[in-house]
Design a protein that fits this description.
Layout (H helix, E strand, L loop, with lengths): L4 E6 L11 H21 L6 E2 L5 H9 L4 H9 L3 E2 L14 H17 L7 E3 L9 H7 L4 E4 L13 E5 L5 E6 L18 H13 L6 E6 L10 H12 L3 E4 L2 H7 L1 H4 L4 E3 L20 H27 L6 H13 L3 H5 L4 H29 L4 H6 L7 E5 L6 E15 L22 E4 L4 E2 L1 E13 L7 E17 L4 E7 L11 E3 L2 E3 L3 E5 L5 E5 L5 E5 L1 E6 L16 E2 L5 E7 L3 E12 L3 E12 L5 E9 L4 E8 L6 E5 L2 E5 L20 E11 L4 E14 L4 E9 L7 E2 L2 E2 L15 E11 L6 H9 L3 E5 L12 E4 L4 E7 L7 E7 L6 E7 L5 E5 L7 E2 L2 E2 L4 E6 L4 E7 L1
Parallel strand pairs: 1-8, 1-9, 2-3, 4-5, 5-7, 6-10
Antiparallel strand pairs: 6-7, 11-17, 11-38, 12-16, 13-14, 13-17, 15-16, 18-19, 19-20, 20-21, 21-22, 23-24, 23-29, 25-26, 26-27, 27-28, 28-37, 29-34, 30-31, 30-32, 32-33, 33-34, 33-37, 35-36, 39-42, 40-41, 41-47, 42-46, 43-44, 43-47, 45-46
Helix pairs in contact: 1-2, 4-11, 10-11, 10-13, 11-13
């Protein structure tokens, strides 16, 4: 009979921050790592230790113990310390696809500095996994993976090894942790009396599911020090297991030994978000601390669609290398995507610290954006300071998409009123200015074309102009918010507009306010007395009623799990509302409504809804400011689409078709572990259509949504809960964490939600519709501009159905390469091409991590790079200047 081989894998699972702040776990980490290094030095049989799949732990340790860097590097090179492949163990359903790629790129770079990377995508504790997980693994050069939650508990998922196939056909060998997870072997100790009983239970758990002769045994647990006497434990287990083999192994050594056993393993496909009766999937985290999630999504979007592309365009033209500041920004952001942190399942102090990191990430990104825009148009603030007579205020308009487009730009213009002097009184004399011109203002392109303009707001404020070789210049200014109808700007191209005297021409398309309605040539949207909206499509004559109707119910759950209270009663917004006009048109029409409603058992919520309609678009834009004074409740917005059936849902690197979930019940008995959830994660958009009539709901990034059998979409706006974990929930019996009060998770005070909706038919491109709202043409006002040079052309993507994902500087190398990425969300093969404004010297097709490059043919003198995108494939192209 063939022998079994038990691969002992000593490890620790290390939550960088959780129910305690990062500093507390950092202090423990230093002690744990000190002890680990001593054990590895003293015990040659302790062959390897798995450091939880995330390199940030070494970053933290070396910050406290810089003298141990060489020891860590030597252990990594010897394979005794398994490092990476992630930078942090992020939640995998909330961050964007590009964030997950950056996480793996940072982890690979760090691991190489520490001697080598673990060759397994290790995800031991994420609360579910996206369908693109195999693509992420293969895109990082990994063919194997380990996970726990989201798989198991249904027919066909009884074993421990699988082949997981992604939407593009990418496939990985997957080992599934047992129901006890990565802690299955934590009770094993080198104690001859206690070990046989402890081992009998562990052995039974593993062999009941083992589909092969190689069996990994994880020995470790949350924040545990390395197991003591590893060699003695191996020897004692070896005596118990004769003639079977017991050895201490690296995780990748197990996969190498079991490679043949995976060839016939069962196939799994799609995202993994449920493991009924097997282990908790904890999908209630998608609604917890939503203001933090939205803030993280805002920074993520700013980095991906503004800071990185601008930095890449500057570098492509031979300018400054901004990769260092971009990496600082990404590291701060990705640290906030640690699974407990971004899920909101932490103490309040951890959430506050995450907010500060997000502020830092945004500050780094803002610096890159300003400097890159200035360099792109050759604006030198030092030269401008020295030539005040030559200054001509200029609006630079930038297109952050790879397709030519026109549209309405909403931006701020500032006009000098006077100096604000800083420092002790001296000889400096404050200047004064006229402020904004009293006559109607106009802006025109350099060819003299005057663009339609609308003033949306006028107020006074302060503006600081910075320069590298001068003190900041702080000025009192008039600040005008304006809307402009700009002609076509090339993909990733720029245009410049300067002030002029002639009046702005009337726009060809108009938006206007009519009583409580906004009207343009596409749609009419009306606010009713309850605060809900009615939408009428003037092109198809379809009508939707009661959209974005706010409703509230109780929430007796905790940070991990939603739980409706016994005898809960749903409260729907009824008004009365107070309405005022914010913008009359003709480019942007807007009205604002204010009202309040009861929330929870003793509180209320104040609501301010601003709806905006652009003259050139059927999309209704909504800004909802929520002043939450309630506790223990869940606030949602309902969109009755009138179209039942499958929804088209945005996910990382693609779209999914989702049916409404079946009617859910409470956990009921111990085997169920937790009740199924009706809500699901969404990225950017969700749409329902019956073929002739449909509605799309859009948001800047991640959001939580429920789809009902009758065709309603319910978007979670707020979950207000006050405790980290409870053990008395009918929806999830048992504590999911240490019970800790978290009053700030009630989300008190004001937070903002951005949403949009529009008529939809299956032929519409949801990514393009989303870009029109959340990746709009952007304006940068340079008040002290002197002799700007506006570059011609840009970067364009050709290919029906292809979706842009990234334009960024290459992570490594000399800095003369940029990365272009798109994906094919369709089930058909697509031909694509990147068209460049300047000739490339070389082009390569690479993995997601920008490695394993294969040459591509350049056409049109180096300005065109063609490629083929297979169904659901992600295509990464690296070009060299």
């Amino acid at each position: 009979m063939p022998t079994l081989t038990f691969h002992l894998i000593p490890h620790t699972h290390w939550d960088r921050e959780w129910y305690l702040p990062r500093a507390a776990f950092h202090a423990r980490l230093v002690t744990m790592m000190d002890d680990l290094l001593e054990q590895l030095a003293a015990d040659a049989g302790f062959r390897s230790f798995l450091l939880d799949g995330q390199t940030v732990l070494l970053e933290d340790y070396i910050a406290a113990r810089p003298d141990r860097a060489d020891a860590i590097r030597n252990l990594g090179r010897a394979g005794r310390l398994q490092v990476g492949p992630w930078y942090v163990l992020a939640d995998e359903l909330i961050p964007s696809a590009e964030s997950l790629v950056r996480n793996l790129i940072l982890g690979a770079a760090d691991a190489e500095r520490w001697g080598g990377r673990l060759g397994v995508l290790y995800s031991p504790d994420a609360f579910g996994h996206p369908a693109c997980w195999p693509e992420l693994a293969r895109g990082a050069g990994l063919v194997s993976g380990v996970l726990w939650r989201g798989l198991g508990g249904i027919a066909g998922q009884e074993g421990d090894r699988y082949r997981w196939r992604g939407p593009s056909g990418a496939e990985v060998r997957l080992w599934h942790l047992p129901p006890a997870g990565y802690e299955v072997g934590s009770t094993l100790k080198a104690d001859a009396e206690e070990l046989p009983e402890a081992w009998a239970w562990v052995r039974g758990q593993l062999l009941a599911r083992a589909a092969g002769r190689a069996v990994p045994v994880f020995i470790g647990a949350d924040h545990h020090a390395a197991p003591a006497d590893v060699s003695r434990l191996r020897d004692q287990l070896g005596e118990l297991e004769r003639p079977n083999i017991v050895r201490v192994s690296r995780l990748d050594e197990f996969f190498e030994a079991a490679a043949e056993e995976f060839r016939q393993a069962p196939l799994v496909q799609g995202g993994l978000r449920a493991s009924p009766g097997y282990t908790w999937a904890l999908q209630g985290v998608h609604g917890t601390r939503l203001p933090l999630k939205r803030r993280a999504g805002e920074v993520e979007l700013w980095l991906e669609r503004t800071a990185e592309p601008l930095a890449a365009l500057v570098r492509w033209r031979g300018g400054r290398d901004y990769r260092a500041n971009l990496e600082l920004a990404w590291r701060r952001l990705v640290q906030c995507q640690f699974h407990d942190t971004i899920c909101g399942t932490t103490s309040d102090v951890v959430s506050r610290e995450a907010s500060l990191r997000l502020d830092a990430a945004r500050a780094y990104a803002d610096s890159v954006v300003q400097d890159a825009v200035f360099e792109l148009v050759r604006h030198d603030p030092d030269r401008a300071r020295e030539r005040p007579e030559a200054q001509q205020p200029t609006l630079v308009v930038w297109n952050p998409t790879p397709r030519p487009r026109d549209g309405i730009v909403v931006t701020d213009l500032t006009f000098f009123r006077g100096d604000v002097l800083v420092g002790p009184p001296g000889t400096a004399v404050a200047r004064s200015g006229a402020g904004a011109p009293p006559v109607p203002l106009s802006l025109h392109l350099r060819d003299g074309h005057i663009v339609p303009m609308q003033i949306l707001d006028r107020r006074r404020g302060l503006e600081r102009l910075d320069a590298r070789r001068h003190y900041p210049d702080l000025d009192a200014v008039d600040r005008l918010r304006v809307a402009l109808r700009v002609p076509v700007v090339p993909g990733f191209g720029v245009a410049a507009l300067t002030t002029g005297a002639p009046a702005s021409p009337a726009p060809e398309e108009r938006a206007e306010v009519q009583a409580r309605s906004l009207v343009n040539s596409y749609v009419v949207v009306t606010i009713d007395p309850s605060g809900a909206l009615m939408l009428y499509d003037r092109r198809t004559r379809n009508r939707w009623l009661d959209l974005l109707h706010i409703e509230d119910g109780g929430d007796a759950g905790d940070a991990y799990t939603f739980c409706p209270p016994v005898r809960d009663r749903l409260v729907r917004s009824e008004g009365p509302i107070r309405v005022r006009r914010r913008a009359a048109g003709p480019l942007v029409a807007s009205i604002e409504a204010r009202w309040s409603m009861r929330a929870g058992r003793r509180g209320k919520v104040g609501l301010t809804l601003t709806i905006l309609l652009h003259a050139d678009s059927p999309v209704v834009r909504c800004l909802l400011d929520i002043d939450n004074q309630g506790t223990n409740h869940r606030l949602r917005a309902r969109f009755p689409t009138g179209s039942a059936g499958q929804a088209v849902v945005g996910v990382q690197f693609g779209e999914e078709r989702r049916d409404p979930p079946p009617v859910v019940a409470r956990a009921g008995h111990a085997r169920a572990l937790e009740a199924p959830v009706a809500t699901a994660p969404v990225h950017r958009y969700v749409a329902l259509s019956d073929g002739t009539r449909g509605l799309a709901v859009l948001a800047p990034g991640f959001f939580e949504c429920e789809q009902t059998a009758t065709g309603d979409l319910l978007v979670t706006l707020l979950r207000s809960i006050g405790v980290l974990s409870r053990d008395d929930l009918p929806t999830r019996p048992g504590h999911a964490a240490w019970p800790t009060p978290i009053p700030e998770a009630q989300c008190p005070g004001v937070s903002r939600v951005e949403l949009a909706f529009a008529p939809y038919t299956p032929g519409d491109s949801l990514p393009v519709l989303w870009e029109s709202v959340f990746a709009p043409l952007r304006g940068v006002w340079i008040r002290d501009a002197v002799e700007l040079v506006i570059p011609a052309g840009g970067v364009a993507l050709d290919g029906a159905g292809l979706v842009f994902s990234a334009l960024k500087p290459a992570h490594a190398g000399r800095g003369d390469e940029i990365v272009l990425r798109c994906y094919n969300p369709t089930a058909e093969r697509r031909a694509g091409a990147w068209r460049l404004n300047e000739a490339a010297r070389a082009a390569y097709r690479a993995r997601l991590d920008e490695r394993d490059a294969m040459p591509l043919v350049l056409e049109d003198g180096g300005r065109v790079v063609r490629f083929i995108a297979d169904p659901h494939e992600i295509v990464t192209v690296v070009i060299r200047r």
